[in-house]
Amino acid sequence: RREREYAESLRQANCDLEVQKAVLQQAADELNNNVEELGRRTRQLEEQAVQLERQKEELGEFTYVASHDLQEPLRKLVSFSSLLAIDVGDDLSEAARTDLNFITDAAHRMQALVQDLLALSRAGRAAMKNDRINLADCVARAEESLETLIEETGAELVHGELPPVRGDATLLSQLFQNLLSNALKFVGSDTKPRIEITAVRDDEGWTFGVRDNGIGMDPKYAQQIFAPFKRLHGRGEYKGTGIGLAICRKAVERHGGQIWVESEPGRGAHFKFTLGEVLEPEPVSSAS
C-alpha cells in the first residue's frame, strides 16, 4: 500500500513538474517574442532617427543655400528702387513714390528675414568649438554690436561676476546679443531700459539670465516665443522677424542647456538659461 501511495505521489509530482515546465516554456517563448519585437521596433526607430537626421541636414542645407541666394536679388531690388527715385526725381507722382516706398520697405524687411534665417541655419549647422570662454567677453561683444541702440535708448546694463564656461564664443555672443536686443526693443515708450545679466548658483548648478523692465508678456506664451517666426506683436508696434529667440534656443541647446522665460504683462521679463559645462575661475597667481 505504501509503495502504491509513494508511486502515486511521484507520478503526481512528475505531472506537476511537466505542467510547470510547460508554463515556463510558454513564458520563455512569449519573452523571446517580446524581445524580438522590441528589437524590430528598436531597429525601426534607429532607421527613422537616421532618416530624420538626414532630412534635418538637407533642410538646413536648403535653408542656407536658399537664404544665401536670395540676398543678391534683394540687394539689387533695394538699390535700383533707390536709383529709380533719384532718376525720376520730381516727375515721380506721390502715389508712385508711396508704392516705391512700400517696395523698398518690403525688400528691407526681406533682407532682415534672410539674414536671420542664415543666422538660425548657422547656429544649428556650424561646427561647435569647445573652448574655455569668459562670458563677460561674450556680453561685451554683444553690447558692442548693439552700441548704437543702447545709446539711442539710454539703456542701463549691469552685471556682476560671470563664471567661465566651455563652449563656442560666437554662439554665446549671439545668444546674448539676441536677448539684449529683445530687452531693448520690447520696452514702453516712456521707460528707460534697465537690463541686468544674472548668474545664480544653486545645488543644481548655474542659471544665467537677462532681466529687463520691459512690457513683459502673458505666461501662456512662454514656450511659443522660442519657435521661429512667432511674434506676439504686430510689425507696426515692434520691429523684428521673430527668429531671434529661436536662435537663442538653438545656441543654448547646442551647449547642452535649456532656456525659458519668466514674465508677466507690464512687469518685464527674465530670460533664463543653463549651459552644459560651467568652469571654476582660474586661480590668480600671487606675485613672487
Describe what you observe in this structure:
- The chain is of the alpha+beta class and 288 residues long.
- The protein contains six helices and seven strands; from the N terminus they run ααβααββαββαββ.
- A five-stranded mixed β-sheet has the order 2-4-5-7-6. A two-stranded antiparallel sheet has the order 1-3.
- Helix 1 packs antiparallel against helix 2 and helix 3 packs across helix 5.
- The longest helix is centred in the first third of the chain and has 87 residues.
- The radius of gyration is 31 Å and the shape is elongated.
- It starts with a helix and ends in a 15-residue tail after the last strand.
Keywords:
single chain; 288 residues; alpha+beta; five-stranded mixed β-sheet; two-stranded antiparallel ribbon; 7 strands
Percent of residues in beta strands: 5-15%
Number of strands: 7
| Envelope shape | elongated
Compressed to H and E, one letter per element, the order equals HHEHHEEHEEHEE
Largest sheet: 5 strands, mixed
Order of strands across the widest beta sheet? 2-4-5-7-6
Q: Flag low-confidence runs.
A: 284-288
Portion of residues in helices?
55-70%
A few lines on this structure:
With 288 residues, the chain is an alpha+beta fold. It has helices at residues 2-88, 94-125, 135-145, 147-153, 169-185, 244-254; strands at residues 131-134, 156-159, 164-167, 194-202, 205-211, 259-263, 269-273.
Topology:
Elements: H1 2-88, H2 94-125, E1 131-134, H3 135-145, H4 147-153, E2 156-159, E3 164-167, H5 169-185, E4 194-202, E5 205-211, H6 244-254, E6 259-263, E7 269-273
Parallel strand pairs: 2-4
Antiparallel strand pairs: 1-3, 4-5, 5-7, 6-7
